[in-house]
Amino acid sequence: MANGWEVNSVEAQPEIQQEAPPFEQPEPVREQEAVDVRERAGRLKAEAARKVQALQLTRARIREQLSRTSNERYIALLNTELQQIEGDLAKLV
To answer: Whole-model pTM?
Structure first.
């Protein structure tokens, strides 16, 4: 009995496939791609803002250390770091 049922199902499949319209890319997928692009751009912008904020905090820490130290070598090291950070900030801003 099961064999007869399977045969009927297999025989009906080509008819069902012929009746179905061809597959086309629906519009909502394109809209979703646009949303994904906007979300990615937002994430990249947020990441850049975090980098800028981290560099600004590091610059503030170095300036604080410069105001508290009297060791000439340490001052030279901090000034070098400060110049590097300010250069990195200039590239991002």
So the answer is: 0.60
Distances (CA, A) of 81 to 38, 59, 76: 36, 9, 9
The pLDDT tens digits for 26-46 are 566 677 788 888 889 899 999
CA distances from 35 to 31, 40, 77 (A): 6, 9, 46
* Residues in Cβ contact with 18 at an 8 Å cutoff, skipping those fewer than 6 apart: none
Separation of alpha carbons 65 and 9, rounded Å: 80
Q: Furthest-apart CA pair in the chain: how many Å?
A: 97
Number of domains in the chain: 1
* Dist CA 52 CA 46 (whole Å): 10
Does 24 fall in a domain?
no
